[in-house]
Amino acid sequence: MSQFFQYLLNGLSTGSIYALVALGYTMVYGIIKLINFAHGDIIMVGAFVALGSTSILVKLGLPPVLCVIITMVATGALGFLTEKLAYKPLRKAKRITALITAIAISFLLENLFAIRFSSRDKTSPTIFELGSFKIGNIDIQWKLVIIISILVISTSALTLFVNRTRMGKAMKAVSENPDAASLMGINVDTTISTTFIIGAALAGLASVMYVIYYSSFNNMLGSSLGIKAFVAAVLGGIGLIPGAVLGGLTIGVIENMVAAYIDPKWIDIITFSILIFILLVKPSGILGKNTKEKV
Amino acid sequence: MTFKKLLMKKYSRRVVNLISCILLISMVTLITPNISKAFTTIMITICINVLVAVSLNISAGSMGEVVLGQAGFMAIGAYSSGLFCKYVPMNNMFLEYLICIVVAAVIAGLVGFVVGIPCLRLRGDYLAIVTLGFGEAIRCLIENLDKITGGPSGLTSLPRLLNSSNRALGGYGAVLIAITTTVVCVGCIYSFMTSRYGRAILSIREDAIAAEAAGIPVTRYKVMAFTISAMFAGIGGAMFAHTIGSIYPSNFNLSKSIDYLVMVVFGGLGSYTGSILSATILSYLTIRLTNLAAWRLVIYSLALILVMIFHPKGLFGIKEFSMTNAILIVPGKIKLLFTKAQDAKNNKKETIIETEEVEETENNKMEAEDEEAKEAEALEEDNMNNGGKSDGK
Amino acid sequence: MENKYQGLEPLLRVDNLSINFGGLKAVDNVSLKVYPGEIVGLIGPNGAGKTTVFNLLTGVYEPSEGSITIDGKEMPKKIKPHEVVKLGLARTFQNIRLFKQLTVLENVMVAFNQEMKTNIFQSALRTRKFYKEEEYYKNKALEILSIFDLAIYASEQAQNLPYGKQRKLEIARAMATNPKVLLLDEPAAGMNPTETHELMEMIEYIRKNYKIAILLIEHDMSLVMNICEYITVLEYGAPIAAGSPEEIANNQRVIQAYLGSED
Fold first, then answer.
1. Total domain count for chain C?
2. B–C: how many Cβ contacts below 8 A?
3. By CB distance 3.0 to 4.6 Å, which of A124, B360, C66, C124 could disulfide with C17?
4. Could you give the ipTM of this predicted complex?
5. Residues B143 and B259 reside in one and the same domain
6. What is the tens place of the pLDDT at every residue in B347-357?
């Protein structure tokens, strides 16, 4: 039984990473109805930034935790740049065009990093030196606690931001109807850029979580993590913040259970089957509402 | 004028197309000094890539859905062909190849059908992800079912008919068989896509709700297009297996699927001649620039982004290139361009007209085979001559 | 007026049609009869549920109550839009929905698909039958296009047609499905008076020569009053009046619905 709780806890922490990534997908999809394929690769870039910045911070004698800020700023900037350079010119274009561009950006980042840093595994930087503690006979690592609490804090902050601030309300308005929003005096461009920046900064946070949790990463981190996070977003209901969290945690737990009780080889196939299943049964996700295109 | 009329006759169109094909092939053969091993490899790779790119164009171009799992269907084709060869050994290599192609087509088609039914109810971007996931899942499955497929170490020592080292036919025969297979398959795809089915599939891309209201069973036709696309990708996979002789799951990864997407996008989503041309050029470049292999994908993706932003129509847009039309229209257009350029010079105007002209020429490269185009052309020709609208009859 | 169709079977018959969206009754107990060769108008203020009636008729929505009968055959409740076409019901859309990048001819040819018989293999291998059928339907399509004065645009892309002609092409496409009942959703929307006049003549022509039932939604009152023989008025999903154009024009309830009551 204690074994089971151990797996559950691991599942919740990987799930927290997925959830944070899924939030980025969901926000961008919510506002411009684009699956930002490059989102996963922004996390990959973030992991590299975290690696680089930690070593610099250590050299400077500063606490390595500061790499969180550096990473978030870097990924936020990257998100901003991709939006401005690649997606903005295509805002009025067909969806397929924007989608192909997103795929291309993802591919570009993966391959640029493969050339610059090779595609071999990198060892994750040490950000915290933390052990574990025990509750009953369950061994709980501190890093898991930290990861899960980062998710809780960031999700609550994001929810507050979207519901309470002016910018958050502008986001909601733009996602409903950009034309009407701009008539109401909302600067649509700024709003979309902000969404991208927030999504990408969350991705930066996710990459720090990733390097805390996993001992190594490489330039392909984005595509596998990206797909799973996307499945999570769809599972929970794309466009919804609680949906992303619910979906992420569910996928994380299922994955760890599969790895523990069946065989880790089947993780990807099972994730994919979940996606197909949910899209068949309820395409709008667990928390989403079904809508039909208006005639 | 009489020459033009002669060219516009239904059958002379086919003759022109045939002659230009023969000319093209003989040109290629003449340029290359001898049937070397490298040449064989290039030609066969081009054939395979053309076929798979054209098959992807059915779903990505004509149906308008981004499919990121084309390599997955190739993998199914390759492995079903490979396994067939392994378990049913035959003496006649050519017969074996034919059977393998049929087996690959049937199995890949079946998988496409089964995957298509649930997936095609989804909207575009979801479908892209699902097909991406599917492609990866197929690869994982092949890796994990190592008792049957050999896992990551692959299926090796398969018969290699499409290889210069084959005992039966040699390099020249191999190239000929590959070309024939591709031409027959592409021909079938093209005539299918210009039939009522193709028209219905195009109408779904344009407006699914209107298509449904015009009596098109949208889901059924989408599944049909997807299945056919998978079938021919499967044939491409079987050809691949027969070329290399050993297949590994890593041959069919995501970057392979993206390669094909790039080819289709560059050629123009929806244009079959465009896919053929860009698949040929890109495969040739890929093989020739092996020392740039690492940068290739970077260049591809950058080019893809630029094409999407600045010229999303690709080479031909949704239009087809046709030799007859080229003969009929291009000289006139060039003349027109020339006179306009001169006018522009006289009037000290800038080159805006010229860009307009280029676009118009693109519009003129229409499909050649049937009456429809003939009429279109009559109209266009009149437009060209009179500069105004005229009766189409 | 009513006597003209006495004893005839209506081609389209709608009985007590209703649909609920959540708690809202978008269409409430609507009944209609359209006889062969008759033009019936469906009018009402914006949001009265007119297009929803069309969507119910064409299988886009499933009605909560009521029945639809086409030429004596009752339409099953659960039916897909493309199957409705086979029963003989064709429609146009309020916001034009053409196959923009296809040619005018192809737009009409698509509608013949349900009649065409060549199978996949005949198409892929281009048998003689394939060519014959294509030729036959191409001529048929040109015939229909010439009714709408569109034949000269046959090889133009649909998106390049002027607005009024796009509307006509949509009707031509609907006619190509060989319907018994034609549903026109605001056919004159966005047309200038000349175009509207042409359209009216065309609808008259179709009615005379094809003997089909036409049901149309329209805001252009001159058109409705001129060509409709019978008009049903909806407000908040429910029918509030029905009758000849004269009756409707003088109906207090209708005037109120359009202009608001004076209190």
1. 2
2. 125
3. C66
4. 0.90
5. yes
6. 654 444 444 43
